[in-house]
């Protein structure tokens, strides 16, 4: 899709949005909360803006994965390679669903997905302990099935997919979510990579604004990952929850007010 950037101010806004979004995705997720509004401000339809946002933020996500490459933590005894393959498969399914979704329906669906992620993430540790007391623990098959569904979510809507993954993992594993930040970066990148390839092939990317956001996101993704390795766990969890609920409120306001 051909969309031009009409002024240096627009270019600076998009690059700045990419820088902040890339850093947010590296530290906690929710970068689409910055990049998607910046792209819709260019007059792009919601599905095109979302596809362009996912494309723009992918290199930053890959930069974060590189920065975190020595800090990967397995999840519930399930291999990282298996999780990545399911994220890729789910991302492809989600991207196909996005391209088939009517524009009006897309704007109404997303806030509810974000609300589910917000509530699950906030209650995750308590729910995990409650399930444990009932003798309900997710085995490897449950984790793999959940990861495929998380990949579908990531391919359908790049926004807060990392937060949704942390929310789901908090129910499936007793590992502190702060230690799963590197794994989240890898799985988010896997789901988004296959989705972005489909968006490019289908012509759903507005390249000029997407490249401007991308320029900032690459630097933001790498710098944010380095910052994320130094943040205390309580600060990181608070930041994750603040971004999740903030993202949810904004999208509900945009869809229903």
Helix content: over 70%
Radius of gyration: 17 Å
Strand segment count: 0
Structural class: mainly alpha
Describe the fold and architecture.
The chain contains ten helices and no strands. It has helices spanning 8-27, 32-40, 46-67, 80-100, 103-133, 140-156, 161-172, 181-202, 207-228, 233-256. Helix content is 78%, strand content 0%. The longest helix has 31 residues, at 103-133. It has 257 residues and is mainly alpha-helical. The model has no long low-confidence stretch (mean pLDDT 83).
Fold topology:
Blueprint: H1 8-27, H2 32-40, H3 46-67, H4 80-100, H5 103-133, H6 140-156, H7 161-172, H8 181-202, H9 207-228, H10 233-256
Helix pairs in contact: 1-2, 1-3, 1-9, 2-3, 3-8, 3-9, 4-6, 4-8, 5-7, 5-10, 6-7, 6-8, 7-8
Features:
10 helices; mainly alpha; globular; 257 residues
Question: What's a quick, concise take on this entry?
Answer:
This protein is mainly alpha-helical.
